[in-house]
Amino acid sequence: MVKTGKAGLFGFAGHTHIIRARAVSGQLVYHPGKPTSLLRIKLPTDSLEVLTPQDTAEIRKVTEAMRTDVLNVEKYPDMAFAADSLDARTGKMGMRLALTMHGVTRVVPVTADVTIGADTIKASGTFVAKQTDFGIKPFRGGPGGTVKVADKVTFCFDLVAVNPPEVAHRPWQVSNDDATQVAGCIDKADAEPTHRPM
């Protein structure tokens, strides 16, 4: 998931946007009690879809700008996420995540909430990245260039790695749950405004 602010990565007309990856594949190697665990995830950029706001015409505009002007999916078809020497234990886990986007790799510090079960490992959390760190020029458009793009975007993840024999080595499935409710990416655009005394 990616969340943008009112002037965010794919922002138009002052709206916030929630973007979901429809396809994710990867591998988690987990060695209990050892820092030799590793994570590899690949995300096709053309699988990204805009979920909010609920306006079909605007979603088309935002999706087109995201794929052509911002991510250039024909030239850069994948995003990649990698981390080594993971100290995989239940609880909070810090990692140095190598994020590759737009053909550029940068290391981003990430803290994840981790729960380890008999056949599953769950991880959730958020991290922030700057477009300009990856050679992406923040979008600016609209009437007279009034729509300006924020440099920072928030990535939100809620992942489950499963290792029963019958599904080992298959691509991960993307949940059909309401993605706008992923922790850290909850869309509050429709929330009631807060009234404060003057």
What can you tell me about this protein's structure?
The chain is mainly β and 198 residues long. The chain has one domain (2-181): Lipocalin, CATH 2.40.128. It is 8% helix and 42% strand. The protein has one helix at 56-70; strands spanning 2-4, 17-21, 25-29, 37-44, 48-50, 78-86, 91-101, 104-116, 120-130, 140-141, 147-148, 152-162. The protein has a ten-stranded antiparallel sheet with strand order 3-4-6-7-8-9-12-1-2-5. Strands 10-11 form a two-stranded antiparallel ribbon. It starts with a strand and ends in a 36-residue tail after the last strand. Residues 171-176 and 189-198 have low confidence and may be disordered.
Keywords:
single chain, 198 residues, mainly beta, Lipocalin, ten-stranded antiparallel β-sheet, 8% helix
